[in-house]
Amino acid sequence: MNNIFSTFSIFVILLFGSCQDNDPNHIAQNKIRDELMAVHDEVMPKMGQINKLRKQLISLTKNKIIKDSTSIEAINYTIKYLEKADEGMMDWMGEFQQPSKMRGEKSHEEIIAYLIGEKGIIQKVKDDILGSIEAASKIIEAHEAAE
Q1: Nearest to residue 128, comparing CAs of 94, 80, 96, 95?
Q2: How far apart (Å, rounded) are the C-alpha atoms in residues 73 and 70?
Q3: Along the 147 residues of the chain, how does pLDDT read in single tens digits?
Q4: Are the CB atoms for 50 and 129 separated by under 8 Å?
Q5: What CA–CA distance (Å, rounded) separates 51 from 44?
Q6: Cα–Cα dist 96/121, whole Å
């Protein structure tokens, strides 16, 4: 019985050990994918904050708490900025292709170029998310300080 278990264990180890992708091109592609996914993972949790801030800003204008036209314009601009950031993340997530899905259809160089381009796009999404949160937070803090 121990012999069968030992043989089965070795078989399982060899089977799963051989499933690892050691192709240097795949490793390079996955490295870039992991870098851009780290950016995504950093800012994705902030999407709830974007929606919360957007609702707070809308409340300031709908409840006529702020009546100054310049302030209302700034709030409306910031609401659009928050919406753009949210849409940027949703669009990126909907369009992003994993490198494994492109293999066989595209060359290694094309996949790397695609991933580098996507890294730039997700960085822009991150900048929009953080920038819009900062802008909205400043408006809300200024309003709370004025009360």
Answers
A1: 80
A2: 5
A3: 555 655 555 545 544 444 556 889 999 999 999 999 999 999 999 999 999 999 999 988 887 777 777 888 999 999 999 999 999 999 999 999 999 999 999 999 999 999 999 999 999 999 999 999 999 999 999 888 776
A4: yes
A5: 12
A6: 10
CA distance linking residue 145 with residue 147, whole number of Å: 6
Do 71 and 143 touch, CB atoms closer than 8 A? no
pTM: 0.81
Residue 65 φ/ψ, nearest 5 degrees: -70, -35
Three-state DSSP at 103 gives strand
Q: Using the 8-state DSSP alphabet, how is residue 64 labeled?
A: T
What does each C-alpha distance from 9 to 15, 17, 18, 19 come to in angstroms?
A: 10, 12, 14, 16
- Chain centroid to CA 43: how far? 6
Query: Which residues does 83 contact at the CB level (< 8 Å), separation at least 6?
Result: 54
